[in-house]
Amino acid sequence: MRRSFVVAILILIAGMKGAEAQPLQKSLDAKIDSILSLLTLEEKVAMCHAQSKFSTPGVPRLGIPEIWMSDGPHGVRGEINWDNWGYAGWTNDSITAFPALTCLAATFNPELSFQYGVSVGEEARYRNKDVLLGPGVNIYRTPLNGRNFEYMGEDPHLASVLVVPYIKGVQLNGVAACVKHYVLNNQELWRDHINVEVSDRALYEIYLPAFKAAVEEGGVWSVMGAYNQFRGQHCCHNELLLNKILKTDWDFDGVVITDWGGAHDTREAALYGLDMEMGTGTDGLTTSTENAYDYYYLARPFLKMIKSGEIEEAVVDDKVRRILRLMFRTNMNPNRPMGRMNNKEHLKVARTVAGEGIVLLKNEGRFFPIGPNREITIAVIGENATRAMTVGGGSSELKARNEISPLEGLQARFQHARIIYSMGYASGPPQYGRVVPSALDADSLRSAAVAAAARADVVLFFGGLNKNHHQDCEGGDRQDFGLPFGQDELLEQLIQANDNLGVILISGNAVEMPWVDRVKGLMQAWYLGSEAGNALADVISGDVNPSGKLPFSFPVRLEDNAAHHYGKLSYPGDSVNQYYQEGIFVGYRWHDIREIRPLFAFGHGLSYTTFELSGAKTNKQSYTAGEAILVSCQVANTGDADGAEVVQVYAGKPDSKVERPVKELKGFRKVQVEKGGRRSVEISIDVEGLAFYDESIAGWNLEKGTYIIYIGNASDNIFQQLEIVIQ
Ligand code: BGC
C-alpha cells in the first residue's frame, strides 16, 4: 500500500509534462491535497521549520525535496554553513553583484527592474536556490536607517511600480521571490523588539502599498515577516497583518517565512499567519545527540499542541498546503529553466542599471562630463574609490566574482589622463555588529591627499558611507547625519587646495553636506555592484548621459526629516515603543506640507543635456471611478546630447475633508530623446489611485471634486498644473 503511494507521488511530481498524464487533469490544489494525505503529522510539522540555516527538510521517503533559500536582494549570497553564520568556503559560489535596490529605484525604469529580476533569478536558479530572500520594500522613513540601501526609497508608488517586474523576472526562473520585511521595519536599532505604533491611514497609504503590489500584481510566492512588533504583536505572527490583510484581503496564497529569528511563540506562530520558521536562536547541532531544530517554536512544541488537541491539525495542513504550492512553483516544477550565472548579459544588466541609477545632483559650469581624451592630471581621492562595497552590510553581502572599483574603472577609461590616487581618510574593515577603527594615521592621509589635489587639474572625491557597522549596514543605524571618518574636514581642505572639484557620493542614504555650495559637481552613486567602476566611468566620461532621479529626499538637516522632527519617541523610540507621529507625511510629503526646502528633492536628477516639458493636458476634464486619467505632455531635448528624462505626475486634493499631502506621485515615465528631438509622453493614472484611506470607514475614500495634477521632472520642479474633477 505504502509503496503505491510512493509511486503515486513520484508520478505527481515528475509527470506534469505529458498532457495525457492523469495527474495533469487534476488541479494543483487536488494534487496538493493528495500529497498532504500521504504525510504523517511529524512530516508536516517538519516542513514548517528550518533544518539548517537556509533550508527546510523535504520528505525523503516520498521524494519531496528540501527547500533551499538564499539572500538577496542584490545577488545570490555565498554559501553559508549548515549550522552557523560562517561562510562554507565553497569555490563555485561567486556571482554577479547587481546594484543595490536604491540604485534600481533611482532608474525610475520598470523595464530595467524586470531585467534585473530575470538576471538575479537566473543566478539563483543556477545556484539551486528555490527562494531568493528579496526584494525589500520597507519605506525610507529616516536617513539613519542602516538598511535603506536595500530598499526602494520613500515613495509607495515608486516602490510599487518597481517591485512588481523584479518579482516577475525572478519567478520566471522557477525561483520564488520573498518580499521583505513585512512591515514597518524602518530602522535597525532595536529591530528585534521595538513596537511600532502608526495610524491605519499611514499604514495603508505609505507602508503597505509596495507589499500589496508585490502580492496582487507581482504574484509573489513568499513574504518575509519583519522582526519588529506592530500594535503589540510580532510581525512574523501578527493576526492583523498576516491573517487579515495579507491572506484574507489580498488573497495571498504563498508562504509566510519568518525573518531569521523572528518567531517568538508557538501558539501565535501557529495561529497568526506564519507558515515557516527560520533562524530561531539556536545554531543547530550541539554536542548532544539531539537536533536543536526540534526546539523551534514550529517544531516539537507545535507538534505537541496539535497532538494534545490545543491546535487543530487543519492549522498545519494549511501551512503545508502553502509550502507545497511554493514547491510546485519552484523545485517540484519539472519545467523550470536551468538558470545561468556570471555571463556577459548579467554584467551588462548590472552596468546598465548602475549607469541609469547614478544621479547627477549638481553640475556647476558643466564640471561633468570629463572628456576621457584630455591629457590632464586627475586626483582621485577617497577610500571609496578603491573599497569593495559588495562586502559587509549584513545579509545582503555578496561574494562577487569580480568588482571593478571606481579607480579601476577610471584608469581603464581615462587612458590619456594622469591619474593619481590618494586615500584621504580611512574607515577600518567591515565587521558585523562592531566598529573597528582604522589603524592608519588620519593626519598623514589627509595631508597626502591635499598635496595630490594641489597638483591636479581636476579633483574627484569618492566618499560617502560604506558597509561598516553604523554605516549602511544591517543590525545598527547610523549615529550621525554627517559624513563619517573626517570627510567633511578633508573636503574643506581639498577645496582650499583645488576648487575644481567634484564629489561622488557612494552611499544608500542621504548625508549632510556643509560643503555643497563649494563643490562644482556632485553625483549620488549608491552601491553599484560588480560593474561599479565601469558604470561610474561611463557617466563621468559622458559615454552615458545620467538619467537617475532621487528615490528619496535629501534634507538639509536631520531635523528637517519628519521622523526626526517629532523627537525621540518618533525615532528611535524608547526601546519598547515608537510612534510614527508624522503619519502619512513621509519624505517629500513632509517637505511640501511644511514648506521645508530639501537640499535635494525626491525625483531630482540632472542630465548633460537640457529638457523642456510643455503642453501638458489630460484626455478630459471630468472622470468617474473606474476610469483612467491620461496625462500627456511633450518632452523636448534642447541641449547637445542624447539623453533620457523622467516625466513625473503628482496629484493633490486641495479642499479635502482630511489633511492630505500637497501632492503625491501617481505616475511616471522615462523617455529617451535625441538631442534636438521631441517626444510625446502619455501617463495613465487610475482614478481609484486618488483615494485616501478613510479611518472613519476603514476603507478607501475617493472624494469627489477638484484635484490638481502636477507635471514635472522632480518633486520640486513642476512645470505645469492642471485641474480635473472627479464626479
Ligand atoms: C535579515 C533578512 C535576511 C535573513 C537571512 C536577517 O537578519 O533581516 O533580510 O534575509 O537574515 O540572512
Give the CATH H-level superfamily of the largest domain. Glycoside hydrolase, family 3, N-terminal domain
- Tell me, briefly, the overall form: globular
User: How many domains in all?
Assistant: 4
Strand order of the largest sheet: 1-2-3-4-6-9
Could you name the CATH class of the largest domain? Answer: Alpha Beta
- The mean pLDDT is 95
Strand content: 15-25%
Largest sheet: 6 strands, mixed
Radius of gyration: 26 Å
For the record, the CATH architecture of the largest domain stands as Alpha-Beta Barrel
Helix content: 25-40%
**Number of discrete helical segments:** 20
Q: How many individual β-strands?
A: 26
N-C termini distance:
66 Å
Which structural category fits the helices and strands?
Answer: alpha/beta
Q: Low-confidence parts, pLDDT < 50 over ≥5 residues?
A: 1-25
In the CATH hierarchy, the third-tier topology of the largest domain is known as TIM Barrel
Task: Provide the list of bound ligands, each named once.
Answer: beta-D-glucopyranose
